[in-house]
Design a protein that fits this description.
By secondary structure, this protein is mainly alpha-helical. The chain contains 16 helices and four strands. α5 (about 110-115) packs parallel to α6, α6 (about 120-150) runs antiparallel to α12 and α11 packs antiparallel against α12.
Length: about 450
């Protein structure tokens, strides 16, 4: 999944590299501060050397300022790279959806595509931003702090055995991924109910079905809530578990370290530095586990995004020498069969043979669901005939480019839609340079 989304970091890779370097630099500088503090205690204060204390204090201030600058830079670079990556993925997904046929859209559903373009992309985008900081900062701090702690006191370092369960927690979190996949699916289902209700609000009110729609929404909402509770049931135990482990580790350090200081085998400054490094190690492990939680959900979202990007449009320009102009309006159906799902037992259209001369007016009658709209949709290739040939102007519709065919076949769908913008902009969808007089004439013709 990562390999398939990596190309969409193009244009922002330099920011990612710089952000990673800033995060690593910030972590290293922060970890040098406790060592400097221990030297102030063990050397400067122990010997009463004010000049040494001031010199080391100034050094610590400079390191802290440098760490602050790198931290701010890492955050800014992560935000820039994350937002840019998200914009690239959304643009690629949107462009892919524009190439989909009606069959492709029905495969995902409109509600699911909306979720994949918004919620899923936001999740992956946030993971990149967090990963540039935490996935770099946490390992650097963990390894460096562990090495520094070992150099200070090898015996006292045994207390880190207490934090091993925390590592296991971070590993186990990886296996809650299917719950987050189900969570996104429940979000799709809830969006679908909202979409249907808003699209058919006039029908709902006309038949006084508000109670039924509210009940249906409540059912999907409850399902989403239950799925979210299952997905996060393990995650919510993480914070108290971390607090317990951190508390136990700190108690062990205080108890054992105090004995070593009293016994003279360890200096007070070293104990302070060791305590700081232990806190950094615990915080690093906590950050790793937090990133694992976010990463688990983003992997589920990333797979859904990749599904859209890798979906092959069912209708494409496939003719080697395409016809670029629809010369006349003759329409022919030659033993045409069609069904919406390939594994369906019944045909929606079966052995249709039809010829319509250019200029003729033909009425197609039938009850609701008798495939009248389906028949007409085959002419501009909104759907592809399963068997047989549909011809326009003496050419198989597959011999045209889709742009040429659909410029020559005007189709007004049963469901009318006004796009965002003015009425004038909507009228000019057919021709951008239409004059006011031409638009008024079109309105009159359409009654």
């Amino acid at each position: 999944m990562i390999r398939k989304l990596a190309p969409y970091t193009k244009g922002y890779r330099i920011w990612i590299i710089l952000g990673v370097l800033c995060s690593a630099g910030e972590a290293v500088l922060e970890l040098l501060l406790p060592k400097a503090m221990s030297q102030i205690v063990d050397v400067g204060i122990a010997n009463g050397d004010k000049e040494y204390i001031l010199a080391m204090g100034l050094k610590m201030i400079l390191m802290a300022l440098a760490s602050l600058v790198m931290g701010v830079g890492a955050a800014a670079l992560a935000a820039r790279a994350g937002m840019g990556f998200g914009a690239n993925v959304r643009a690629a997904e949107y462009a892919q959806v524009q190439r989909f046929s009606f069959a492709n859209i029905e495969h995902f559903s409109t509600a699911s595509l909306i979720t994949r373009l918004t919620n899923d992309v936001s999740s992956v985008q946030m993971t990149l931003m967090m990963g540039m900081r935490m996935l770099v900062r946490a390992p650097v701090m963990l390894i460096t702090a562990l090495v520094m702690a070992l150099t200070i006191g090898l015996q006292l370092s045994q207390v880190f055995l207490v934090v091993l369960p925390l590592i296991l927690v971070a590993i186990v979190i990886r296996y809650v991924g299917p719950f987050f996949t189900a969570l996104q699916k429940s979000t799709d289902d809830l969006n679908l109910v909202v979409q249907e209700d808003l699209n058919a609000i006039r029908v709902v009110k006309s038949f006084v079905r508000e109670d039924r729609e509210q009940e249906k929404f409540a059912q999907r909402s409850d399902t989403l809530r239950d799925t979210a509770e299952r997905a996060y049931s393990f995650v919510v135990l993480f914070a108290p578990l971390v607090t317990l482990i951190m508390g136990g580790t700190i108690m062990a350090i205080m108890w054992l370290g105090g004995h070593y200081v009293v016994g003279g085998s360890m200096l007070s400054g070293d104990l302070i530095a060791f305590f700081t490094y232990a806190s950094e190690i615990l915080m690093s492990l906590m950050m790793v586990a937090m990133v694992m939680m976010v990463l688990t959900r983003s992997i589920a979202c990333g797979k859904r995004i990749v599904e859209v990007l890798e979906e092959q449009p069912e209708i494409t320009d496939s003719a080697a020498d395409p016809a670029l102009i629809v010369e006349n309006g003759d329409v022919d159906f030659d033993h045409v069969y069609f069904k919406y799902h390939k594994d369906s037992d019944a045909w929606n259209l079966e052995d249709v043979c039809l010829h319509i001369d250019s200029g003729m007016t033909v009425g197609i009658l039938g009850g609701t669901g008798s495939a009248k709209s389906t028949l007409v949709s085959l002419i501009p290739r909104l759907y592809e005939a399963t068997e047989g040939v549909v011809s326009v102007g003496g050419h198989d519709v597959r011999e045209y480019t889709m742009e040429a065919l659909r410029q020559g076949c005007a189709m007004v769908l049963q469901k009318n839609t006004l796009f965002s913008g003015t009425i004038r902009e909507n009228l000019r969808w057919g021709r951008e340079d239409a004059t006011n007089a031409e638009m008024e004439e079109a309105c009159r013709m359409a009654c």
